[in-house]
Design brief:
The chain has 155 residues and is mainly alpha-helical. The chain is built from 6 helices and no strands. It starts with 8 loop residues before the first helix and ends with a helix.
Length: 155
């Protein structure tokens, strides 16, 4: 991202805004799906809320750190545009470093297909165990909700 004293909207700001929008559109939906993947239905609400909370708190912490770096650079006391840009450069370095750490963290979380299959087997075993441990009333209620054809075919 080129930073100068005179903003160039079509060449600098517009492409950055479009890339940020594309990244949020693709990344946020993928992250939301990954946060709840492989969980039982009863646990997906908890996972989604933990994901949303960590996203918001993380953003607030990064904003506070970047603001502190800009203020420590003396941006509020500088009067020339070139000096102001100089005060913002360390903050841009902090944002870049945090982004790199986030990318490395995301890449380290990628699991091979074999590991995903093992996790799926564990989840399916938990579901089967939960069905075996279900009280008779729950099983009877579930069977009562099933269509008549399914009830007849299971007997």
């Amino acid at each position: 991202l080129q930073v100068g004293t005179r903003p160039d909207y079509p060449a600098v700001i517009l492409p950055a805004v479009l890339l940020i929008g594309l990244a949020f559109g693709l990344g946020f939906s993928s992250l939301s799906l990954a946060a709840a993947a492989g969980l039982l239905d009863a646990e997906q609400g908890l996972a989604a809320s933990l994901f949303q909370t960590s996203f918001q708190v993380g953003g607030a912490i990064v904003l506070a750190v970047v603001t502190a770096v800009v203020d420590a650079g003396g941006a509020s006391q500088i009067t020339t545009p070139q000096a102001t840009l100089g005060a913002y450069r360390p903050a841009l370095a902090v944002i870049t470093a945090i982004s790199a750490v986030g990318a490395l963290t995301a890449l380290s979380g990628l699991r091979p297909a074999r590991r995903r299959a093992q996790v799926e087997d564990i989840v399916l075993a938990q579901v089967d165990a939960a069905e075996v441990d279900a009280p008779a009333e729950v099983v009877a209620a579930a069977e009562a909700d099933a269509p008549a054809e399914e009830r007849l075919s299971s007997k």
